Amino acid sequence: MELENVLWMLTALAAVVVLLTWMRMRASASRTGHAAIPQWIVTSHTVIGVVALGVWSSYLTSPSMPLGVVALGLWWVEVVLGLLILLRWLPGS
């Protein structure tokens, strides 16, 4: 399997994770007994995830160093927001 195919598969997996996180957070917002996650974190996670996917896809189709750096920076912001969501579910939070 070529590296390019692996990168596209991982990109598609990242899109699924962003989408499923958004759907799960929207569905659990109305349920009782779930951790209260501020809506701005969920919205930011979704918006930055979509932007990161777009920039990353652009980088994969026409690689350039500045575009790659911006894409990786957006992914790290996405990771931090995802960890903020995850921390709300840990015991003692």
Polypeptide structure, described:
- α1 packs antiparallel against α2 and α2 packs antiparallel against α3.
- The N and C termini lie far apart (42 Å).
- The protein is mainly alpha-helical.
- 80% of the residues lie in helices and 0% in strands.
Q: What proportion of the residues form beta strands (DSSP E)?
A: under 5%
**Main β-sheet, in a few words?**
none
The tally of helices reads: 3
* Distance from first to last alpha carbon: 42 Å
For the secondary structure, the number of strands is: 0
Name the helix and strand elements from N-terminus to C-terminus, one letter apiece. Answer: HHH
Class based on secondary structure composition and strand pairing: mainly alpha
What percent of residues adopt helix (DSSP H or I)? over 70%
List low-confidence stretches.
Answer: none
Question: Radius of gyration, rounded?
Answer: 15 Å
Overall geometry: elongated
Give average pLDDT, whole number: 83
